[in-house]
Design brief:
Largest sheet of chain A: 2 strands, antiparallel
Catalytic activity (chain A): a ubiquinone + n Na(+)(in) + NADH + H(+) = a ubiquinol + n Na(+)(out) + NAD(+)
Organism (chain A): Neolewinella aurantiaca
Largest interface: A-B, 85 and 102 residues
Oligomer: heterodimer
Keywords (chain A): Cell inner membrane, Cell membrane, Flavoprotein, FMN, Ion transport, Membrane, NAD, Phosphoprotein, Sodium, Sodium transport, Translocase, Transmembrane, Transmembrane helix, Transport, Ubiquinone
Shape of chain A: flat
Distance between the termini of chain B: 44 Å
Strand content of chain A: under 5%
Order of helices and strands of chain A: HHEHHHHHEEHHHHHHHHHH
Largest sheet of chain B: 7 strands, mixed
Number of helices of chain A: 17
Helix content of chain B: 25-40%
GO molecular function (chain A): FMN binding; oxidoreductase activity, acting on NAD(P)H, quinone or similar compound as acceptor
Number of strands of chain B: 20
Number of helices of chain B: 14
Enzyme class (chain A): translocase
Distance between the termini of chain A: 44 Å
Chain lengths: 464, 538
């Protein structure tokens, strides 16, 4: 180990060459935990650092990457009516998914990390690990056919204006990954909304849908597969199956309600995730797995997640109360009523609520600071997000917008929590002063201010 | 009981809200939610019936007097019985605070519980920088070569000249070391074989407070009294609201305070009796509720005893004060002492001599035999650690969180009763952030620690901006938003600093948060700069 370390250290550029040194330092600290020792303050330090904190989120996302890769291929072949079984043509689905997802992943990291390296070099500070998570999240929240150029522009926008302009990781006020998505959403809406974009490799010719022709990469794999006797992609260009629609459950629900959704997708499919949508946010069980992992390891704050779940259920129940009951809906009713009538547990398995509340809202930089604030923050994200999802006529999903909105308001929430804390502390000291006077007059035989007395501190001392 | 009430309140409210909402839907047999709620309601109904019946039983048993010891006669276990260790019987009826937040870093190298009499130091130092709130260049009234008795004045502050600082041992002054800008770093005394103390004329039993204060200032015992806020040497002009004494140290590998008082209980009691006369308020003793039975401190008379059960920092006097009665500026100014300072006062009043004897823990994994030794204030660390050979280690006066890395030539700090030796961590670790193969302490569940481990001084990561993952709150058993306080110090927002509780904190209280910080921020330094600003502002 020492030999390897010395070997790497041999190539360390001089400190004057800022850019080269920063880049070296970035890779060096990735490979090794550096040999720095504490200088003043505590003499030992916790083993947890920001890199480790961030990489745990990336670990939790890995199952979603695998599932997402398969699902891209699965949806593609489902549209064509080929290999409709879950494991049929598994190799083709994975390869197809990889051919779609790898360029997205590479572009995301080249652009994002490139900018990060550039700014770190210019400012002469270490490369920070914030993009580790952003870079892992961005591919998962994009449609599989996202044009790479626009993706690159969006990421450049998000990283420069959303992060570096504020001073880098830890200083940004908005979630960088969502900022990239919202940029595409407003700048290139056709690539990220509508019924066509969620299934990869389907083209519209006139009014009919056809598979896009496969490219050289597929050809290369076809050559390999034919060599080992597996099924192959072929030339492409076949027509889709009759009655195919690439619409997401939410897209249907906004117009036709739950009945319309179940006509196309089964509840099981929506739960397990074999439906069209953004790459990583389909599978409820896998997201819940990640959620449990993050909560148990305390990487993500459970308060945001549970606050969000409560907010979601409350908002959905309120909508149910306003809307006519499910079985009283008629054909000619407005779509929004049908959407509102859907109960919360069905709302939850459609769309990307669970993904957003687990991985996006819990971002330890842009979320609220205080424990109490985190409950409020999570609750409001879900509450407002569901309103945006259901009531907004243009786009049937709302987490991106509601999280960015609450990112903006998180400091305000915290401000009031701090004010409450100041008042509470002042009151508490006053109450204790009174008790002290009593204690002095009747030395000894008075019950004392403790956890059984009427005053119970709230906020971050609850449960002390 | 209160939380249970609140829980049932919330539950029934939620049921009510749900039912209201569902009243619009038709319960046609397919409504899962409706049946679910009905089932929950039924369960709650049965629960209430059973609970009411159970309560009658408890009331009955109380009235018939069979429950004299207030044990739980109900059907359900109390929540505290379910999740915590049973509190020992001796705490029954005592004021006990249970702190759940905090962390005991499981370090190797705990001192064994015997006092080794064979080790003794010959050189002792008084270091003016140990006393916060003094001018950097005090007036030194001894010269190299002078011989002094224990308790004789050797220097005092030019501004606060009533407070006298004295020699811890009798002997010859051999060095007066200067630090930055001609400040006095230390005054070293070579101790005599037979210790001689100066003699005192102790004030009479009924002496006024002024006389007592004047005597303590002149005697040299005053130096052990510290004032909160700011942790400065106590101001003789101020009458403290209360006096707080923590009788145990919960820091990693800390010295066992039972050994410090063993055999000197009457001296400690004498010290407490003096302190009672210095305040109009109360003298509070913070005791360790994790002890198995009553200790020598439990029998002290004339002080309000408060027991604290919980991991570090439960032994910090600041944390104890936060729960008993927080400190503040003005009329909320309080004094704090440690066990050794009380013993010094007690010794003067009881036996009429200055005796700075203290039991010091020599700890740390690199030591061959970690143990307690008996020595005097300011002992030379190298002499205490004689017999150990070290390679690439850091010798700390104090504990791993707040101590000073003075090295093997250094001296024990005035307020310290612990020496820690740590291995330096100046070795890079491949993928150390991803695969923590070498043992390290952590409050994070992603880095499990199995039993005690040997810590190093490696930073385990680089400094970053603050992130809001609430790790400070998870180790601070105080109603304080540490991170926001730090930020308000950095931007010099005085109002926020005051409101968020800067007066209640000193470095040792945030030390554990600094240890746990994922961004490796220097919280203790930030806090001290904030305290200095507030001190200057008056």
């Amino acid at each position: 180990m020492k030999a390897l370390h010395d070997f790497v250290k041999k190539y360390e550029p001089s400190k004057e060459n800022k850019m080269a040194h920063t880049v070296f330092d970035g890779f060096y600290t990735f490979l090794f935990q550096p040999d720095t020792v504490t200088s003043d303050g505590t003499h030992i330090k916790d083993g947890m650092d920001l890199k480790r904190l961030m990489v745990n989120v990336v670990l939790a996302l890995q199952v979603l990457y695998i599932f997402g890769t398969w699902n891209i291929g699965h949806q593609h072949f489902l549209a064509l009516g080929e290999h409709t079984g879950l494991l049929e043509g598994f190799h083709l689905k994975i390869v197809y998914g990889l051919i779609q997802i790898l360029p997205i992943f590479v572009v995301t990291h080249v652009v994002g990390l490139g900018i990060e390296f550039f700014y770190a070099g210019r400012k002469g500070h270490a490369i920070e690990e914030g993009f580790l998570v952003s870079g892992a999240l961005i591919p998962l929240i994009m449609p599989p056919d996202i044009p790479l150029l626009w993706l690159a522009i969006a990421i450049a926008f998000a990283v420069i204006l959303g992060k570096e302009a504020f001073g880098g990781t830890g200083m940004n006020i908005w979630n960088v990954a969502l900022l990239a998505r919202v940029f595409i959403f407003f700048a290139y809406p056709t690539t990220i909304s509508g019924d066509e974009v969620w299934v990869s490799g389907i083209e519209k010719v006139g009014t009919e849908y056809f598979a896009a022709s496969y490219n050289w990469a597929h050809g290369l794999f076809d050559w390999i597969f034919s060599g080992v006797g597996l099924s192959q992609f072929g030339a492409g260009g076949q027509a889709v199956v009759d009655g195919w629609t690439g619409a997401t459950p939410l897209g249907i629900a906004a117009k036709e309600g739950w009945e319309g959704v179940t006509a196309v997708y089964s509840t099981d499919a929506m739960f397990w995730g074999g439906i069209p949508g953004s790459i990583g946010e389909m599978s409820v069980p896998l997201i819940v797995l990640g959620m449990i992992f993050l909560i148990v390891t305390k990487i993500a704050d459970y308060r945001v997640i549970f606050g969000g779940l409560i907010g979601f259920v409350v908002c959905a129940l309120m909508m149910n109360a306003i809307a006519p009951p499910m079985d009283a809906l008629t054909e000619d009713m407005d779509g929004v009523f049908k959407f509102m009538a859907i109960p919360w547990y069905y709302q939850m398995i459609m769309g990307s609520f669970l993904f957003a509340i687990t991985f996006m809202a819990t971002d330890p930089v842009s979320s609220a600071d205080t424990p109490t604030g985190k409950w409020i923050y999570g609750f409001l994200i879900a509450f407002i997000g569901l309103i945006i999802r259901v009531m907004n006529p243009a786009y049937p999903e709302g987490w991106m917008l509601s999280i960015l909105l609450m990112n903006t308001f998180a400091p305000l929430i915290d401000h009031y929590v701090y004010q409450a804390n100041m008042n509470r502390r002042a009151k508490r000291t006053a109450a204790m002063a009174e008790q002290r006077n009593e204690l002095i007059t009747k030395r000894g035989d008075l019950p004392v201010f403790d956890e059984n007395s009427d005053y119970v501190p709230v906020g971050n001392t609850s449960g002390q | 009981m209160k939380s249970l009430k609140r829980l049932t309140g919330i539950l029934s409210l939620m049921v009510l809200v749900n039912l209201t909402f569902q009243s619009q839907a038709q319960a046609d047999g397919g409504n899962l939610l409706f049946y679910g709620l009905a089932a929950v309601a039924l369960l709650i109904f049965f629960f209430i019936v059973v609970s009411v019946a159970d309560n009658f039983m408890v009331i009955e048993s109380n009235e018939s007097g069979i429950n004299g010891e207030k044990v739980n006669m109900g059907l359900y276990p109390r929540i505290s019985e379910l999740f915590s260790k049973k509190t020992p019987a001796y705490l029954e009826g005592e004021h006990t605070y249970k702190l759940n937040k905090g962390y005991d870093i499981p370090l190797e190298g705990k001192a064994s519980d015997v006092v080794d009499g064979s080790i003794s130091a010959t050189r002792f130092a008084v270091m003016p920088p140990d006393f916060i709130g003094l001018k950097p260049i005090p007036k030194v009234i001894v010269e190299v070569g002078d011989s002094v008795k224990a308790g004789e004045v050797i220097f005092f502050d030019k501004k606060k000249d009533r407070i006298k600082f004295v020699a811890p041992v009798s002997g010859e002054v051999i060095e007066i070391n200067r630090g930055l800008q001609r400040s006095i770093a230390s005054i070293v005394i070579l101790a005599d074989k037979d210790q001689v103390s100066r003699t005192y004329t102790v004030p009479a039993e009924g002496a006024s407070r002024e006389e007592l204060v004047e005597f303590l200032l002149e005697s040299g015992a005053w130096a052990g009294i510290r004032q909160r806020p700011y942790n400065i040497v106590a101001d003789p002009e101020v009458t403290p609201r209360d006096i707080f004494i923590s009788t145990f140290d919960s820091a990693p590998l800390a010295a066992n305070s039972q050994l410090q008082i063993a055999g000197r209980e009457d001296v400690f009691q004498a010290g407490i009796d003096v302190l009672r006369r210095l305040t109009d308020g109360l003298v509070y003793l913070g005791l360790d509720g994790r002890e198995e039975g009553k200790t020598a401190f439990s029998t002290v008379r004339g002080a309000e005893k408060r027991y604290f059960i919980g991991p570090h920092p439960s032994g910090n006097v600041g944390v104890q004060m936060h729960h008993i009665h927080p400190a503040g500026v003005g009329e909320n100014t309080v004094w704090t002492l440690d066990v050794n300072a009380v013993l010094v006062i007690g010794e003067i009043f009881k036996n009429g001599r200055y005796n700075s004897e203290r039991v010091v823990a020599l700890t740390g994994a690199p030591l061959a035999a970690p143990r307690h030794v008996r020595t005097y204030t300011g002992a030379n660390l190298g002499e205490l650690l004689a017999g150990n050979t070290f390679d690439n280690v850091r010798v700390i006066s104090g504990n791993v969180l707040t101590g000073d890395a003075v090295g093997a030539d250094g001296y024990l700090g005035y307020f310290e009763s612990q020496v820690t030796v740590l291995k330096e961590g100046n070795e890079a670790e491949i993928f150390g952030w991803l695969l923590p193969l070498k043992p390290r302490g952590s409050v994070s569940p992603t880095i499990p620690t199995f039993g005690d481990f040997e810590a190093t001084t490696n930073t385990h990561g680089e400094k970053r901006a603050f992130v809001v993952n609430n790790v400070y709150e998870s180790v601070m058993p105080m109603d304080v938003y540490t991170q926001q306080l730090m930020k308000s110090i950095l931007v010099q927002d005085f109002e926020a600093m005051e409101g968020l509780g800067i007066y209640e904190l000193v470095e040792e209280d945030v030390a554990l948060a600094e240890f746990a910080c994922v961004s490796k921020q220097p919280l203790q330094n930030i806090l001290r700069s904030g305290l200095n600003t507030m001190l200057e502002q008056g």
